[in-house]
Amino acid sequence: MVPRVISVVVPARNAGAVLGGQLAALCAQSYQGEWEVIVADNGSSDDTAAVARTWINRLPGLRVVPASATRGPGAARNVGARSAAGDLLAFCDADDRVAPEWLAACEKALEAADVVAGAIDISTLANPPEEPGYFNAEIFEFLPTGLGANLAARRDAFLDLGGFDEAMRVGEDVDFCWRSQLAGLRYSEAPEALVVKRVPTRTIDILCKTFLYGRSDVALYSRYRSKGMPRHLGRAVRVPVWLFRHPHFLLRLQGRKHLAWVAGTYAGRLVGSIEHWVLYP
Questions:
Q1: Separation of alpha carbons 228 and 221, rounded Å
Q2: DSSP alpha helices (H): ranges in 54-197?
Q3: What is the pTM for the complete model shown?
């Protein structure tokens, strides 16, 4: 078997305070093959690039590339992928933590796939800690998908697809996974490729983040309804009814955070429905 090189692409914007944690996690990888790390700086105004360069002697082939022409993580990932030396690509985010076996699991999964989605732990970095849990990527009840915080792909397949859609600031990862499958590429999931993801904990941050998610949900529906992506009109009613019947749930911190998550999502979907002239509650 011909040895393969893996290029790890980390999009980063104003991530100076958290990037070191992810780079330390990459230092702890068990993978024994040849690999490099590319930090794609998406127009940071802080010390993101300087922090990254302090790790050059500790990470193989660490490079910082400017990626500020177009804002958004998808655009930054595309710049990193185009400058990559590897024939395999692995994507993770600047503020998360990859598990020690992450890169090895990505490489193994790509032996039989063109695009791979890893597992996401959304509990460990929460403050305060949440109950253990994993992100459920089947919320759309359409094709399987992963998050840009934990994806891997063969570089030739990635470039043939045109990479991530840079017009999408949110949801570009879901769009990429779906396009790959509709194009007939081999898509797989790798539970062993684990990333611990940082999720917002302050109410205002949850509302802002989920509002963007909600808007992107509608954009995805507008693109993929003709391909079979469903919508469930009763969903917008079920959640408020459930909360009305279980008011004690809101007395708990996790309950109030969940309410903020739901409120932000539905507000985003309302705005997105108006923007795209479709109804996706």
A1: 9
A2: 73-82, 102-109, 155-160, 172-182
A3: 0.89
